[in-house]
Amino acid sequence: MKFGTYTFQPEKAQGFDFHVLRVKPETGIRLQPAQDMYSNIAVFADNVAVRNHPDWISQSPLGPAKMGNNNYNIYWDVVCATQPEHRAEQLNYIADVDKHSLGVWLNSQYFADHGHCICPRCNELWKKSGLSWLEWRRKEVTDYIAQIREKVKKELVLCIQPDPVSSYERYGVDFDDLAKYADAFNVVMFSKNYATPWYWETLARGFKKLLKKPFYISFYVFGPGDNPKDVPSASELLTVSVRCARAGADGFLYLTDNASQIRDFQKVAVEKVELRERLRSYGGQPVQEFLDFVASWQKIM
Ligand SMILES: [Zn+2]
Fold first, then answer.
1. Could you tell me the distance, in angstroms and rounded to a whole number, from the CA of residue 106 to the centre of ligand 1?
2. Residues of the chain falling short of pLDDT 50
3. What pLDDT score was predicted for residue 301?
4. pLDDT at residue 171 in the model
5. Distance 135 CA to ligand 1 centre (A)
6. Residues, CB within 5 angstroms of ligand 1 (ion)
7. Separation of 45 CA from ligand 1 center, angstroms?
8. What is the pLDDT of residue 191?
9. From 91's CA, which of 109, 111, 113, 279 has a CA 20 to 30 Å away?
């Protein structure tokens, strides 16, 4: 089992196996990659690209993939997944970032959501393909991942939405297709609280059954601009991690803006002696491994 941090700032908190830097989050803002960190790139979710090219936005019968379209859970603007200039630019960018970091973790490397995309180019491509609508979308996504794999010489991790059942219909994502190219998956399970760990454990079990490559789970600790009152408690994070560890996850990442918020989480986690003792009874080897990892933070606090 491996443990990582997932941050918006190029800072590495102590006590983790690896660090993932959000070099290009969905805002489209780009940071310099770091040689000793992995780089996370949001491919099609890109506010800057849509601001510069409004006609690139992904279209659907329920409106465009624009921040504020409440038909979808979209908190940013998403470029059409077949937009050729964006695809080409992102391929080169991904190759360059790969060279200057430990490897590449991609998210948003698929269609915006169900019903996307019906722009004139997509309609034409679909009709030419002779495939069903859903199979055409799957082929578009998988073919682009194959092109990305050619460019990425180091580790390639593909992030996926926490939907084990409908990712094909919603995003054009076929897990078996992606497993051919990915070194690992990262299931993004961000939430402002983990009060009911049962659901997250259920999702983890679903992904364990389906994914043909190792998979990480990413949990939300403290996002940019968050109020400390509105983020998950350390107790919730420890409990949900244990419950997903026993469901078969191969590792965990913890998302914060910067390294000091990771340290705050570590500090409180170390103080939760009684809870950590109780969680020992929650399962076998993976649970013990996770709790040993948390206990190792005592030395660095
Ligand atoms: Zn389109």
1. 20
2. none
3. 86
4. 98
5. 15
6. 80, 117, 119, 122
7. 13
8. 97
9. 113
CA of 142 to the centre of ligand 1 (A): 16
Distance 60 CA to ligand 1 centre (A): 9
Number of residues that make up the chain? 301
pLDDT digits (tens, 9 = 90+) for 30-83: 999 999 999 999 999 999 999 999 999 999 999 999 999 999 989 999 999 999
pTM above 0.90, yes or no: yes
CB contact set of 229 (below 8 Å; sequence gap of 6+): none
Q: How far is the CA of 80 from the centre of ligand 1 (A)?
A: 4
Ligand 1: centre distance to CA 29 (Å): 23
Phi, psi of 39 (to 5 degrees): -115, 130
Three-state SS annotation for the chain = CEEEEEECCCCCCCCCCEEEEEEECCCCCCCCCCCCCEEEEECCECHHHHHHCHHHECCCCCCCCCCCCCCCCCCCCEECCCCHHHHHHHHHHHHHHHHCCCEEEEECCCCCCCCCCCCHHHHHHHHHHCCCHHHHHHHHHHHHHHHHHHHCCCEEEEEECCCCCCHHHHHCCCHHHHHCCCCEEEEEECCCCCCCHHHHHHHHHHHHHHCCCCEEEEEEEECCCCCHHHCCCHHHHHHHHHHHHCCCCCEEEEEECCHHHHHHHHHHHHHCHHHHHHHHHHCCHHHHHHHHHHHHHHHCC
Question: Residue 43 has what pLDDT?
Answer: 98
Q: Distance from the CA of 55 to the center of ligand 1, in angstroms?
A: 10
Q: What is the pLDDT of residue 31?
A: 98
What is the per-residue pLDDT for 2? 98
